[in-house]
Amino acid sequence: MKIVTDSAADLTAQEARWPDISVAPLFINFPEGEVDARSLSPDEFYRRLEEMHPDIPTTAQPSAGIFADLYRGLGSEDEILSIHISSGLSGTLNSARLAAGQVAEAAVHVVDSFTLSGGQRFQVLAAVRAARAGWPREAILERLDKIRAATEVVYTLETLTYLARGGRIGRVQALAGSLLHIKPIIHVAKEDGKYSTLGRARSVKRALAHIADHLAGLYAGQGALWVSVMHGQFLEQAEALAELLRQRLDVGMLEILRISPVLGVHTGPGIVGAAVVPLSLLEEIA
Q: What are the chain's domains?
């Protein structure tokens, strides 16, 4: 079985090179042309973003044609699980479904992660582990459902300006306008995979404490957790959040990772948050 995802999954560079994972590109449209987001380091991207201020680039999903070529390139011998950024946040899943219908020679099963970034990555890594262990498709899909239901992706922003300019405010719009200086606490709602606010704070420090409180309440008594702290260009705050979560959670694994530039378009450099899942849901796969 082969696993396909997209660059919103925030796989590490090493993971993206695994032979059983294929990563479809998401694109960033700068004034000088379209760029595959995978070709930009986060720091290079934020430098270019700063040069564009006050404008921001736009993003584009892979076309159905890109997905069709990718599926055909994987051959017809293996099943393909194609796991993508939430349909509530991107049209990428639609492109994958259109392509799957066009490629009769491959058995493609398209999966809506209903999340993004570290939460999407958990599902991709679980699918890879299960496929390597010889799990059948239905068992893998069942485990992905459990991981999806048990994962929380929550973050705060130094400013809402980028979400507002990019038109991605959604249910966060109540915080826009004169409240752009407020630090929102945003998560990805499990029922539809869209952004929703959990609260607000007047400083990043207070927002990080709110995130720690939220996660401590959500995962109390659930055993050891896999915690991925994610940030744009906000390492000091990411380290502060990591320390808070070590103090408040039963941390079995903790890492600090950068989010993809294609997600940074809509958040700016001042994003920090975490993706959390019970570690047992991945460790049990063998």
A: 2-26+61-149 (3.40.50.10170), 151-283 (3.30.1180.10)
- Residue 112 to residues 83, 191, 269, Cα–Cα distance (Å): 6, 12, 27
Please state at what angle helix 64-73 crosses helix 92-102, rounded to 10 degrees. 50
**CA 214, 218, 220, 222 torsion-angle sign:** negative
Tokens of 113: 């992660």
| Its pTM surpasses 0.90 | yes
Question: Which residues touch 50 (CB under 8 Å, ≥6 apart)?
Answer: none
pLDDT tens per residue across all 286 residues of the chain: 999 999 999 999 999 999 999 999 999 999 989 999 999 999 999 999 988 888 889 999 999 999 999 999 998 777 999 999 999 999 999 999 999 999 988 899 999 999 999 999 999 999 999 999 999 999 999 999 999 999 999 999 998 878 776 555 554 544 444 455 789 899 999 989 998 889 999 999 999 999 999 999 999 999 999 999 999 999 999 999 999 999 999 999 999 999 999 999 989 999 999 999 999 999 999 7
- In the numeric block, the tokens 């392509």 are attached to 99
